[in-house]
Specification:
alpha+beta, 6-stranded antiparallel β-sheet, 41% helix, globular
């Protein structure tokens, strides 16, 4: 597998993530709606829109995430399966994490019981994976081709929402009066 730490810590990828100005921005109805829709569509108890930073994953949106994670809105990367999807820049499917030795030390698996995962990386226009739209289950799952196609479509809508957020932010900045010292 790709050197995950190097891929996640890539300065260009991190710069692309920070340019979006989405980390630590709090809940958003649009992103929350996409997480709910992913969970319902794939019949999964948990769905997330994650942004993978150098040392944590931030939940821009979540559905079904238990407390205190739902309120904290982030975990260290030691709890992240999404970091692997970001590192490879491609969809990642785990049917049974308990038999995947590369996840033996992942705390989402060992502490929270995440057993199955399907995640689609959120790719910027210049090809950087900044996070994922993912679904998780606490039981083994065989994700179908239709499941993955639906998740890919929802990830594309999520990226469109991210671009819309950028355009709205840029428009607000242009309308703001200039401030001089």
């Amino acid at each position: 597998m790709t050197d995950v730490a190097a891929a996640v810590g890539d300065p260009e990828r991190l710069a692309a993530l920070r340019r979006l100005v989405l980390l630590d921005t709090g809940p958003s109805k649009a992103f929350d709606r996409l997480a709910r829709l992913a969970a319902r569509t794939l019949r999964a108890p948990i769905a997330l829109v994650t942004l993978v930073d150098v040392d944590r994953q931030y939940f821009k949106a979540s559905f079904g995430l238990p407390e205190p994670l739902a309120t904290a809105r982030e975990t260290p990367l030691s709890y992240s399966v999404c970091q692997y999807a970001v590192a490879i820049g491609a969809p990642l499917v785990v049917c049974d994490a308990r038999v995947e030795h590369w996840l033996d030390d992942n705390l989402a698996v060992t502490e929270f019981g995440v057993t199955s995962y399907a995640g689609i990386p959120l790719l910027t226009g210049d090809g950087f994976a900044i996070g994922t739209l993912c679904v998780l289950d606490l039981v083994p799952r065989s994700w179908t081709d239709d499941d993955l196609a639906n998740l890919e479509d929802l990830a594309a809508v999520t990226m469109r929402e991210i671009r819309l957020h950028q355009l709205e932010r840029r428009a607000r900045l242009q309308r703001a009066p200039a401030r001089y010292p």
